[in-house]
């Protein structure tokens, strides 16, 4: 086993706000209004976005865009961004695209996620854009698709999801 040395040691810190601030705000807003409040920084993003380094770019009815800058802390043992990080980013964008169409009092959760990794993401990939777009939104179920692209538009991953829509629980 190789010991850590000062030359190889890394650290990564992040901070976040109380996640209940956003959750409580969501109970009084439509899905799109909630996302716009987060985009405009009137409510804090969920802690997972801070931890993973996801940036909220824009929300519109049925479409959401996030940005992501790969970091060494995202790497797997083979020196590329871990597929779980990429999947989390895509799941978040697609889920928020579903949320963007929900009326007040409704919530959603991911039931199924299918990811296709087209090429490896590394630090050299640079800033990435992740688009989530609705395919179908019904009363009890929605489907969406996602794409992870670099700044030049090169595709790195694409995905689909099925989400269940339900009455949002009271806290």
From TrEMBL:
A Pfam family it matches: 4HBT
Which domain of life does the protein's organism represent? Bacteria
**Keyword terms, alphabetized:** Hydrolase
Q: What residue stretches are annotated with the Thioesterase domain? A: 79-155
The record's listing under InterPro entries reads: HotDog_dom_sf (IPR029069), PAAI_dom (IPR003736), Thioestr_dom (IPR006683)
Spell out where the chain crosses the membrane.
Answer: none
Q: Which NCBIfam families match?
A: unchar_dom_1
- The name of this protein is Aromatic compound degradation protein PaaI
User: What is the organism of origin for this protein?
Assistant: Chromobacterium sphagni
